[in-house]
Amino acid sequence: MPTPLRIAILASGRGSNAAALLAARERGELPAEFVLVASDKADAGALQLAQLAGIPTLVLDPRDYPDRRDYDLALFERIAEHKPDLLVLAGFMRIIDGDALKPWAGRMINIHPSLLPKYRGLHTHRRAIKAGDAEHGASVHFVTAELDGGPVIAQTVLRIEANEDENSLSARLLPLEHQLLPAVVALIAADRLALSEEGVVFDREPIRKPLRMEDGTLVR
């Protein structure tokens, strides 16, 4: 039986995507061991979820460090003590210093609520509606020093409805995010997905465009 993937989750907020990962493990869909949930916010809901599930937690306050680089180096040094195979940013609302990222190249992913490369950063639902887009969605990508700019692994897409506002769009997208992120992590856990010099590799072949979620399954 394969060794479960050791995962550390980083989250700043309520932790709904972290909860989706834990639920996927409980359903037997994700062969993973969650070794840590870390946050920059002491009141993050994700920490409470972890505590209820018996997962170790870590909180570091950025205000205790002179600058972003020092904070990030300290945070990832502490995370490394738990020996994760994969870091999952699930609503971790910080830009990470490039030096802190280097040891984790190809081993850190993030979920972002837009169809990257569109709408990096914040307020993605509002920006998609304002632009008059017909479609919106979410992306999972490998993390690099470029904000939301790493190689995109997979996406889920939904149509923007007439008279949509950002709250309704966010609410309709969130359940799709909760399918997308565990599906990507499951492929990594099964050694079917990785990052190479050629880009994202799926089943040992580089992909030309992100995988898409269709009927709960990721496809080319």
UniProtKB/TrEMBL annotation:
Keyword Nucleotide-binding belongs to the record: no
Binding-site residues, N(1)-(5-phospho-beta-D-ribosyl)glycinamide: G15, S16, N17
Molecular function in Gene Ontology: phosphoribosylglycinamide formyltransferase activity
UniProt domain Formyl transferase N-terminal: residue ranges: 6-185
Recorded catalytic activity of this chain's protein: N(1)-(5-phospho-beta-D-ribosyl)glycinamide + (6R)-10-formyltetrahydrofolate = N(2)-formyl-N(1)-(5-phospho-beta-D-ribosyl)glycinamide + (6S)-5,6,7,8-tetrahydrofolate + H(+)
Pathway: Purine metabolism; IMP biosynthesis via de novo pathway; N(2)-formyl-N(1)-(5-phospho-D-ribosyl)glycinamide from N(1)-(5-phospho-D-ribosyl)glycinamide (10-formyl THF route): step 1/1
Sites marked Raises pKa of active site His: D148
Keywords in alphabetical order: Purine biosynthesis, Transferase
Cross-referenced InterPro entries: Formyl_transf_N, Formyl_transf_N_sf, GART, GART_AS
Active-site residue list: H112 (proton donor)
Top EC class, one word: transferase
Pfam family, one: Formyl_trans_N
Enzyme Commission code: 2.1.2.2
Binding site residues for (6R)-10-formyltetrahydrofolate: R68, M93, R94, I95, I96, N110
Function recorded in the entry: Catalyzes the transfer of a formyl group from 10-formyltetrahydrofolate to 5-phospho-ribosyl-glycinamide (GAR), producing 5-phospho-ribosyl-N-formylglycinamide (FGAR) and tetrahydrofolate.
NCBIfam families in alphabetical order: PurN
Family to which the UniProt record says this protein belongs: Belongs to the GART family.
PANTHER family: PHOSPHORIBOSYLGLYCINAMIDE FORMYLTRANSFERASE
Entry protein name: Phosphoribosylglycinamide formyltransferase
Lineage of producing organism: Bacteria, Pseudomonadati, Pseudomonadota, Gammaproteobacteria, Lysobacterales
Gene this chain is encoded by: purN
